[in-house]
Amino acid sequence: MSKREFQTEVSQLLQLIIHSLYSHPEIFLRELISNSSDALDKLRHLTLTDDAYKTLPFDPRIDLELDEENKTLTIADTGIGMNEEDLIAHLGTIARSGTKNFLAQLSGDARKDSNLIGQFGVGFYSAFMVADRVEVISRKAGEEQAWRWVSDGKSGFDIEAAERSVAGTTVLLHLNEEGRQYANSWRLQEIVKKYSNHIAFPIFLTYDKSEWNEAEKKSEKIRTTEQVNAASALWRRSKNELKEDDYKEFYKSITGDSEDPLFWFHTKAEGSLEYTTLFYVPSKAPFDLYQSEYRTGVKLYVKRVFIMDDAKELLPQYLRFVRGVIDSEDLPLNVSREILQQNRVLTSIRTASVKKILSELKNIAANQPEQYLKFVAEYNRPLKEGLYSDFANRETLLDLIRFKSTKVEGLTSLADVKSRMKEGQKSIYYITGGAESLLRTSPLLEIYKKKGMEVLILDDEIDEIVFSGVDKYDDIELKAVNKSSTNEDLKDEAEPDKTEALKPLIDKLKISLGDRVKEVRASVRLADSPSCIVTDEEEPSIKMQQMLRAMGQKDIPAPKPTLEINPDHEIVSKLLARGDDPIVEDAAWLLLDQALLLEGVPLQDPASFVQRLNRILNLSI
Ligand SMILES: Nc1ncnc2c1ncn2[C@@H]1O[C@H](COP(=O)(O)OP(=O)(O)OP(=O)(O)O)[C@@H](O)[C@H]1O
C-alpha cells in the first residue's frame, strides 16, 4: 500500500468543508450521485463514439447499498471508472480551475469563505462531512486492474491494488456521528427523490426491508433492492423522441395538476451557454397567482441534478404562472440563492427564456387564436404587470395583451385597433377608472362615438396604474380620454372655437366653484352630456387619486379636475342666457357633481347636492 499526501489545497478545502461549509450535509449524496451520473455519461459517450469502447458492455446504473448494522453506505456506478493515476490526480489534487480560483480568494474569515464556496462545487470531498473514512474502489473501463483509494480526510490517502468485477466506481462511506442519520433507507429515498429524481440513469437502493411474516407472526428483515428515482430527465430528450402524452404526463408529475397544460415550450440552447428549458402554461391560473406569497413553478437543475424549486430569480414575477424546468450545464452544483441573484449565467438564461416564452405566445396568438383566447382569459393580467416591470419586452407584451373595446365584441389586439384607426385619427384612445358598464356610458366617449373612433375599455383594476406609464404602441401614441390633452386631438379645424362665446358663463362657473376646479372650459369631446371632468397629463386621474387615498396615502389633495362644458348643449346655452341669475350657481355645482358621479367619485357633500337639485326641480315643475 502506498501512502500519499493530499495537495495542500485539498487539505485546506477539506478543513473548510468539514468545519464551516454546508448547512445541509445531505447534499453529499447529491454530489456523489452526480459524479456517478457524469461517469456514466462519459462512458456512454465513449461507447457511442470511440471504436476502442464500442464492444464494452454498458449497463448503466447507480447502486446505493445500506448496511445499517455497520453504518456504511456505498454509492456504486458502472461508469467510466478510474485507474491508479486518475485516483491520484482526481482525488488527491484539485485540478479544476474553479476550485483553485476559489481557494485563491479565501480570506481566512470562516463566514465570508463559506459564502464564497457557494459559487464553486466541492463535489467528492463533501463525502467527508458525513464519513470519517472513505474508500473508493474503482476500475477503469477497458482495464483489468482495479484500485482502492482510502482516506480519513485528514492528511492524505492510501492506494493499493484491488478487485472489481466490472468497470466502474464504488464509494464506500464509513458514516461518522453526523452521517449516522443517513443510515436509514427512508431518509435516503427521500433525498434521492428530492435531488436526483431526474438523473437519467436508474438509481437502486439495497437495504433490509421489514416485512411481516404471517406464518411466524413476526416481522423480519429481507434484503431488498428497489429503484428509487424516476430516471427520466425528460427535458433532455430530443423533441422528436417525445410524444404529446410524454409532455403531459411529465407536467402532471411535476405540478400535481390533474388537467393537461395549455401549451409547452421545449428549448435546447447550445453555444456559449448550454441549457435546456421546458416551460408549461397551466390551463388554469394557479390559485395563488395574486397572493404576495405565491409559489414559483420553475425548478432549477444543474446537469440534471435538482438544485431548487422555489427560486424567484428564475423568471420575472409577472411570469409566475409558468411551470417547468431550467437545466443548466454551466452553473455550479451548489449554487446558492444569494448567488443566483447576481449570476451572469442565470441572468442570460432568464433573459433568453423570457424572450422565448413571449415569442412562442406570439406564435400561438397568430396561429391558434382559439387557444390563445383561453390563455388570455387566464393570464391577461399578469402580462399587464409585465408592462411596468419588464421594459425591454414592452412592445411584445403590448402585442400579447388583449383589450375590450367600443368597436368589437369580446377582445381585440392593439395591432387590430391600429388597423381600424380612422383617417386623421392621431392616437389610440382608452378609458380607465371603473366598472365596464360605467366606462361604456361615460360622457367622455360621446365624441368618439360621433366620430366613429374606437376606444379601449380598460376596466381592470391595475389598468389605471399600468397604462398611465405606457405612451406608445408602435409609433402611435396611447392616450387616456380623461386627460385634458386629448382635447387637442379632437379639435375640428373647420369648427370655430366656441370658448369666446361661452366666456361670460365660464367666468361665472369659475367664481362659483372656486378651488374645487382647476379650470372651466368649452369642451370638444361632448355630444349628449352637458359636462365632464378631465385631468392634466402629468396628474393621476381622479380614480387613481381615490385609489391612492384608499391605500392610505394621506397627503393626496382633494381632486381638482378641469370641468369641461358642452357648448352645444341646451342646458349650457340656457344658462348662458340666464346672465346673473343665482340659479347659475346651483347649476355650476350640479354640472360638476354629475360629472364626478359619472366618473365613479362619490359626492363630497350630498346634502348640498340634494338642496340644489330640489331648488332646480322646484323651478321646473
Ligand atoms: N464516480 C466516479 N467515477 C469516475 N470518476 C469520478 C467519480 N467521482 C469522481 N470522479 C473523478 O474525480 C473528479 C473530481 O470529482 P469532484 O466531485 O471533486 O469534482 P467534479 O465532479 O469534477 O466537479 P463538480 O462536483 O463541481 O461537478 C471528477 O472530475 C472525476 O474525474
TrEMBL record:
Entries under InterPro entries matching the protein: HATPase_C_sf, HATPase_dom, HSP90_C, Hsp90_fam, Hsp90_N, Ribosomal_Su5_D2-typ_SF
SMART domains, sorted: HATPase_c (SM00387)
Keywords associated with the record: ATP-binding, Chaperone, Cytoplasm, Nucleotide-binding, Stress response
GO molecular function: ATP binding; ATP hydrolysis activity; ATP-dependent protein folding chaperone; unfolded protein binding
Superkingdom of origin: Bacteria
CDD domains per UniProt: HATPase_Hsp90-like
Renumbered residue ranges of the record's region A: 1-337
UniProt: ATP binding residues: E31, N35, D77, M82, S97, G98, Q119, F120, G121, V122, G123, F124, T169, R337
Region span, C: 547-621
A matching Pfam family: HSP90
Chief location category: cytoplasm
Histidine kinase/HSP90-like ATPase domain segment(s): 24-179
Function of the molecule: Molecular chaperone. Has ATPase activity.
Listed HAMAP family: HSP90
Subunit-structure text: Homodimer.
Protein name: Chaperone protein HtpG
Origin species: Acidipila rosea
Gene name as annotated: htpG
